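Notes, Module 5: Reading structure tokens.

Key idea: the token line is not a picture. It is a compressed description, and you learn to read it the same way you learned to read a sequence, by spotting repeated patterns. We will look at two proteins. The first is printed below with its tokens.
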Amino acid sequence: MLPSAASRSKISSAKVKQMANTIKVKLVKGLIGTRESHRATVRGLGLRGINSVRELEDTPAVRGMINKVSYLVKVVS
């Protein structure tokens, strides 16, 4: 059974709302010589190598992680 037009519009608006609550983060510096806890934070953000980009949910926890390693990452729009 196909969804009605009303439910389709709800699905698409939910996707748009979800995309508005995301942040793109890019690793711009290498991790050699950094603290182990900072390396773990970068790994927790899902970033692997230089120039890797991840789209993450915009939550206070993620913002705190980004703030902790702000000298290593860049928020990409």
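Here is the second protein, with the sequence above and the tokens below, as before.
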Amino acid sequence: MTQQAINDWNRQVIEEFRANGGKVGGQFAGAPLLLLTTTGAKSGQPRIAPLAYANDGGHIYIFASKAGAPTNPDWYHNLLAHPDVTVEIGTERFAAKAVVLPEAERDRIFAIQAKLNPGFAAYQEKTTRKIPVVELVRQAN
């Protein structure tokens, strides 16, 4: 899939998400989905990515899987450079700090996600890199 095709697909998911209070159809139907707005590491421009997430005890986690590609997704590089992000879940929008989990905590959360969604286990098997897990820590208003 070309970068333009990915961008077009993401744009459609974002529009559907916002038009339907956070609900989308297709491959994401029924899955927990959020929109993550990061600041471009190089461009400084806002970038929005629709992402599957896990909620464990009120903690929100995202996974830099990129479907098992050999490199991390662009949004991951962006949040490393600019950890202040905006999160949309359903109709709620809030500021958060992106915190990459240390290895032991990463392994625990990734195991939970892989059990709930076996696709994530398959992504890890496809790549030699360890897929990063990021906690989105809600910031006070």
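Summary for the second protein:
- The helical segments are 3-19, 74-81, 103-116, 118-126.
- Residues 58 and 90 are 15 Å apart (CA to CA).
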